[in-house]
Amino acid sequence: MNLILLAPGDIEHGQQACIRDPRRLRHLKEVHRARIGDSMTLGVAGGGIGRGELLALDEEEARFALSTLNTPPPPPLPVHLVLALPRPRMLARSLEHVTALGVKTITLLHSRRVEKSYWQSPELAPDKINGHLVLGLEQARDTVMPKVNLAKGFRPFVEDVLPGLLETRRGLLAHPGMPQACPRGIDEPVVLVVGPEGGFIPFEVERLLEAGCEGIHLGPRILRVETAVTALLARLF
Amino acid sequence: MNLILLAPGDIEHGQQACIRDPRRLRHLKEVHRARIGDSMTLGVAGGGIGRGELLALDEEEARFALSTLNTPPPPPLPVHLVLALPRPRMLARSLEHVTALGVKTITLLHSRRVEKSYWQSPELAPDKINGHLVLGLEQARDTVMPKVNLAKGFRPFVEDVLPGLLETRRGLLAHPGMPQACPRGIDEPVVLVVGPEGGFIPFEVERLLEAGCEGIHLGPRILRVETAVTALLARLF
């Protein structure tokens, strides 16, 4: 937790902030070993970042005196990530990685090799997803929550939604065996599409290319989804 | 498990291979749902890769008829990764990520912000480390085991070992706030040094720069070690 993320309601009179959730109170005590008078980094959800001095810490709450929270959060990546829904544990870690890296729009997509049971996972509950996004923001000292969309039908997304996204963005389909190596250091808005473990099936690859995506690869190694997504984002931007 | 890694002793008369460990037998049954006659990818530790046909699968063993295992493994990354010893769970995942990405030489280094207890972790037992390296190789269809060295003293490593490594390699110290952005797409041998959660202390940064490392950064976001290492490798090579 490199930043304490405040909801607007956590701030009183613009000068003090108070957090009460057990997870962060425990983290402050056990990991930070925080003491009264410590200076810590805080930020307002969707807003600026600054420092606060710890005034009180007990079983119920932590209270901070705030400086002006006017440092902007780090810049986002200009990417809409479309990720075939990973298995639940991999989903959790992937959401944390990509949020820390600065992704702000994520669509979780069905595809043939996504097990249908994954869509029933408790990890998809909004609270659970939110929890992983917050962990990613806290890690990277960011304040801007990503938006996560669920696309439970492959064809409706690829036929009805994707073409509109690609009107103003470059579409990149990361898939083993595609002809073009992943581009490096680009600076334009991108829709990045990443398949499930085992990859998209040929029919799906064809539909994505038809919709206007360029096929790219990361070399001959087969990577886990969470490794591949991090590697793609690091190479692209 | 995208490749079944064979020890030379697993191959009989150069034509059949037999594996008996419960982990892989279970994986073949439960994840691959393998059936007699299935064709799978196999490779010999340190050697070539090919296909094999599953001849038998029971509680005791899986037996394959081998084709010629003569496809070379994917090329390694030209990097010696020097990583401040992460906490045990992060170590496990980091070893899998970097092995899958093609790192062949890893030094786990002590530094001030590495908790001394981490050096006592059962995760550092050679068998445990080996297990994570094998998972990385199986994932990426590689056969060449990385070498992992333990450097339990920061100064002995930086003063006595690192200068020799840097005679023939470019030294890069990844540390927040360094002046130079991480270079992209280089093709020369590198020693990549990555600090612990919380970073190297200033004294350590100075010693590493004195030893000949260039300081590089990945931008304003603070990343977890496993995310940072994957991002650095993907951007560098």
TrEMBL record, chains A, B:
Keyword line: Cytoplasm, Methyltransferase, rRNA processing, S-adenosyl-L-methionine, Transferase
Residues of the Ribosomal RNA small subunit methyltransferase E methyltransferase domain: 74-236
Enzyme class (EC, first level): transferase
E.C. numbers: 2.1.1.193
InterPro entries (UniProt xref): Alpha/beta_knot_MTases, RsmE, RsmE_MTase_dom, tRNA_m1G_MTases_N
GO annotation, biological process: rRNA base methylation
Reactions listed under catalytic activity: uridine(1498) in 16S rRNA + S-adenosyl-L-methionine = N(3)-methyluridine(1498) in 16S rRNA + S-adenosyl-L-homocysteine + H(+)
Annotated GO MF terms: rRNA (uridine-N3-)-methyltransferase activity
Subcellular location: Cytoplasm
GO cellular component, one term: cytoplasm
Alphabetical list of Pfam families matching this protein: Methyltrans_RNA
Function: Specifically methylates the N3 position of the uracil ring of uridine 1498 (m3U1498) in 16S rRNA. Acts on the fully assembled 30S ribosomal subunit.
Family: Belongs to the RNA methyltransferase RsmE family.
The protein's name in its UniProt record: Ribosomal RNA small subunit methyltransferase E
Gene: rsmE_2
